[in-house]
Amino acid sequence: LDPDEFRRQGHMIIDFLADYYENIEKYPVVSRVEPGYLSKCLPDSAPSDQESIETILHDIDQYIVPGLTHWQSPNFFAYFQTGFSIPGMLGEMLCSGFNVAGFNWFSSPAATELESLVMDWLGKLLDLPTSFLFSGHGGGVIQGNTCEAIICTLTSARDKILRRLGQDSITKLVVYGSDQTHCSFQKAARIVGIDPQNFRTIKTTWSTSFGLSPDSLRNVIYSDIDRGLIPLYLCATVGTTAITAVDPLTPLCKIANEFGMWVHVDAAYAGASCICPEYRKLINGVELADSFSFNAHKWLLTPLDCCCLWLKDPSALVKSLSTDPEYLKNEATDSKQVVDYKDWQLSLSRRFRALKLWLVLRSYGEHNLRNHIRNHCGLAKFFGELVVEDGRFEIAFPRHFAMICFRIHPSAVIDNMTIGHVLENRHGEAWKAEEVNRLNARLLEAVNASGRAFMTHALVGGIYAIRFCVGGALVTERHVAMAWKVVQEHANSVLASARH
Ligand code: PLP
């Protein structure tokens, strides 16, 4: 490695990124390229001779940037944003710079020990029960994503019960979630060998604000037991993907505990908010669960990938996932004094992800991290007020965190359509509801096509709503107000066009 050349190229990349962020608002938020665009711009095989960083950066600017959807744009209000901050980004650089594969303690002690330390720090910030911390005989691990966290915990739950009942019982194991549980749960269950017929998706309704109803869970469990099946695992969600609904943890966990099931709490998005006491109460009951995860790479200023998973009994994970090949044998492992994180995850090699989280926690401090969450919730509330002020719109689902689900109010659509003599008696309620949904979908499409803001949608309880999620590190009140203006402008034209 030539240190001077490394410095020169490194500075160029930092300059490139600094310019990118300086100009990020100039790009259309959603990329406008057509599928297959890149193969028309770049050669179809790797170069035979080396190319300069200048040439490569030129191509990034010309061909890659236009194909980006700008997730860090302050006008990005779609999905759940990916975490971003200067400390987080620099932590990633350090991680790649050291490039250690800390699969066990011996392979890079600092990687393991910092991860354990940071997971306890973060667990304390979230006020997790001490039983989830290393200092309380539990422990935390950084996974790539929630799907991996669910696969690992579901595997442990499966093996724990099969060790007792025998392998043949696998066909009888049943897992439970709601119709709002993230699809990664279904994928995990498939991978872990749960019979697809034993995957329970319990319907949610308005009566529980689309949280999982404890009564419904109990009824489904009873009916499964009556059929000779074995309840295994409940995935409860705090902050569902579509509308940030919250499953009531305490009653759900009590039921699951009664039947000896494993409970995993998926707070992928909303978990970050639990560093604020006013949101922490939403995970009350977590002390009765077996595992808890959230993605620091969503709302805690940490770049992808960083899913934080805590367990009360990490040995259950180790029993299912440990391997012991000759080439990894070492005294530290034999002493049983160390954590070998390879046995807490799917893959062997692992990145030094704890560094970026450590940088974020230290560079911000508890106080500023809380301000970050509260600022976003305040901006979402502000957006909600703008929605309510305009009589043509309504908030479609209750706000819990920093996301507003809104839509053009059915009455605005129906009034509008009556003028256009489309609405006639032969059209029933279902037709009207569909028409309202279609109009809102058209509005969202128009907003996104403008390039000035990016939002996504949810379809829950038959209602199509536009999701406006505040999560970007660069977003300010000005961006929120501007996004609302874009919505209003397009609502005018969408409603006008529906009249004809
Ligand atoms: N769970 C919830 C509640 C989510 O909202 C998401 C993604 O948005 C996931 C799980 C999936 O997370 P990952 O991409 O880390 O697997």
UniProtKB/TrEMBL annotation:
Matches recorded under Gene3D superfamilies: Aspartate Aminotransferase, domain 1, dopa decarboxylase, N-terminal domain, Type I PLP-dependent aspartate aminotransferase-like (Major domain)
Cofactor(s) it depends on: pyridoxal 5'-phosphate
GO biological process: carboxylic acid metabolic process
UniProt GO MF annotations: carboxy-lyase activity; pyridoxal phosphate binding
Domain of life: Eukaryota
Record-listed N6-(pyridoxal phosphate)lysine modification sites: K298
Chain ranges passing through the membrane: none
Alphabetical list of InterPro entries matching this protein: Aromatic_deC (IPR010977), PyrdxlP-dep_de-COase (IPR002129), PyrdxlP-dep_Trfase (IPR015424), PyrdxlP-dep_Trfase_major (IPR015421), PyrdxlP-dep_Trfase_small (IPR015422), Pyridoxal-P_BS (IPR021115)
Cellular component GO terms, alphabetical: cytoplasm
Keywords: Decarboxylase, Lyase, Pyridoxal phosphate
Family to which the UniProt record says this protein belongs: Belongs to the group II decarboxylase family.
Protein's UniProt name: Phenylacetaldehyde synthase-like
Gene: LOC115729722
